[in-house]
């Protein structure tokens, strides 16, 4: 489920770039070279086979131990919705602090700089990272389901939503129909793209899906100043 959703959704932004589609919605005008995109895909295949696959295999017994169910009946929608909301809130909290820690000097230089090799992100770069970071921040995604022991269908839904969110945040395009235009406190591509193109010591915008943690701790001030300046320039023109 994870691999299918990730690669199918992640390849879309590469297609947009290569075909020149929706260029007016592209956040950065710079394009990645086919060589850079191919290198990313090759590394992803190696990482997913060598890191993600073993983690998924070894985590299954842990999920079963915590109460993961796969038999009928399916859980009521109220249970599904409440669990998914809990997962998002918990993941945002854990991811924020883990991501902020990765921007300290030593961890950035030796681990997180791999993810920032692509200053102009595209969908697949969302999981292009050092193996240690994959394990470190991947913990934020699985801790919620591990604690609650959901039904397998709920776990699938969570994986789909989480993958689509991170791919969208790295896609490099801000569309009129982007979720951030409609969902309160949703970060999205424009919010996270700023994080990739600014010097790592000043980037801020560490949040995962929802941006309340950056707002609470003031780590989105640079981004907010830029948005205010752009809005003012738009009014003047």
Automatic annotation (TrEMBL):
- GO MF term set: aldehyde oxygenase (deformylating) activity; iron ion binding; oxidoreductase activity
Q: NADP among the record's keywords?
A: yes
Under Enzyme Commission nomenclature, its number is 4.1.99.5
Q: Where are the transmembrane segments?
A: 6-23, 44-63, 75-97
- Reactions this protein catalyses: a long-chain fatty aldehyde + 2 NADPH + O2 + H(+) = a long-chain alkane + formate + 2 NADP(+) + H2O
Membrane-topology annotation of the record: Multi-pass membrane protein
Residue ranges the record marks as coiled coil: none
Name the top EC class. lyase
The Fatty acid hydroxylase domain covers 85-219
Query: Its GO biological process terms?
Result: lipid biosynthetic process
UniProt cross-references to InterPro entries, sorted A to Z: Fatty_acid_hydroxylase, Sterol_Desaturase_Related
* Keywords on record: Endoplasmic reticulum, Lyase, Membrane, NADP, Transmembrane, Transmembrane helix
Where does it localize?
Endoplasmic reticulum membrane
A GO cellular component annotated for this chain's UniProt record is: endoplasmic reticulum membrane
Highest taxon listed in the record's lineage? Eukaryota
Name the family the entry cites.
Belongs to the sterol desaturase family.
Q: What is this protein called?
A: aldehyde oxygenase (deformylating)
- The protein's organism comes out as Ananas comosus
């Amino acid at each position: 489920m994870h691999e299918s959703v990730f690669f199918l959704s992640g390849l879309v932004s590469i297609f947009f770039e290569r075909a020149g589609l929706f260029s007016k919605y592209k956040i950065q005008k710079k394009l990645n070279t086919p060589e850079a995109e191919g290198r990313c895909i090759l590394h992803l295949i190696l990482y997913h086979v060598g890191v993600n696959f073993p983690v998924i295999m070894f985590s299954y017994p842990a999920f079963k131990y915590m109460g993961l169910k796969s038999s009928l009946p399916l859980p009521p929608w109220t249970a599904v919705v409440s669990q998914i909301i809990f997962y998002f809130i918990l993941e945002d909290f854990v991811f924020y602090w883990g991501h902020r820690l990765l921007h300290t000097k030593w961890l950035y230089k030796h681990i997180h700089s791999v993810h920032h090799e692509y200053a102009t992100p595209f969908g697949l770069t969302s999981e292009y990272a050092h193996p240690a970071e994959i394990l470190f921040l991947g913990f934020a995604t699985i801790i919620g389901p591990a604690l609650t022991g959901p039904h397998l269908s709920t776990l699938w839904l969570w994986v789909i939503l989480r993958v689509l969110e991170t791919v969208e945040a790295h896609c490099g395009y801000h569309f009129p129909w982007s979720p951030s235009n409609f969902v309160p406190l949703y970060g999205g591509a424009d919010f996270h793209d700023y994080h990739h193109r600014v010097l790592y010591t000043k980037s801020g915008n560490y949040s995962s899906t929802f941006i309340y943690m950056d707002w609470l701790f003031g780590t989105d001030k640079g981004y907010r100043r830029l948005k205010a300046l752009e809005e003012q320039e738009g009014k003047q023109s």
